[in-house]
Amino acid sequence: xxxxxxxxxxxxxxxxxxxxxxxxxxxxxxxxxxxxxxxxxxxxxxxxxxxxxxxxxxxxxxxxxxxxxxxxxxxxxxxxxxxxxxxxxxxxxxxxxxxxxxxxxxxxxxxxxxxxxxxxxxxxxxxxxxxxxxxxxxxxxxxxxxxxxxxxxxxxxxxxxxxxxxxxxxxxxxxxxxxxxxxxxxxxxxxxxxxxxx
Length: 198
Hints:
alpha+beta, 4 strands, 4-stranded mixed β-sheet
C-alpha cells in the first residue's frame, strides 16, 4: 500500500499516526506529494488532489482521513482505533473532533494563505468562536478523555497541534486540564514521530 501524504498536513498526520499505532509501518509506503499543484503526482490517483490518499494493495484509491483510518483498522481489527456503533461516546467524540480540526484548519488557511486584504473577518470569527466552544466542551469533559489511542483522540491531538501555525489560538492558558491531557498523549511514539512542522 502507498499513502500519499504531506508532513505539513494535519489530516495526513492522523493517518500516519494510525499506521504506527496499528503496526502497519512495514506494509504502507509513505510518499510525499505536492498539493495545490496541477502537476502533482497525487492527481494521477485522486482527482481531488487531497492528502491523505491511500492506494490499497487491491488497487482501490481511498481518500478522506476517517475512511482511510477505518480501512486500515480493518487490517488490524484487534486494535480498536475507530469506534464501533455500540460505543456512542466515542462516535460522538469522532464527530466533534472532526468538526474541530476542520474549523481550525479553515481558520489557519485563511490566515496563512490569504493576504490581509483577502481574509474574511466573518469566516475567521465563525471558526474562532466554534473553536472556543469546542475547547470549552473538551475542558469540561477532560476527565473522560483517557490515553487510549483512538481516532477521536488522535484527531483532537492533531487539531490542538495546529497551535504551532496559529498563534491566535493560544488555548493552553485557559484550558489546563485539556493541556495536561494533550501533553501526556503527545508523548506517544506515534505522535512524536509525526510532530507537526510550522
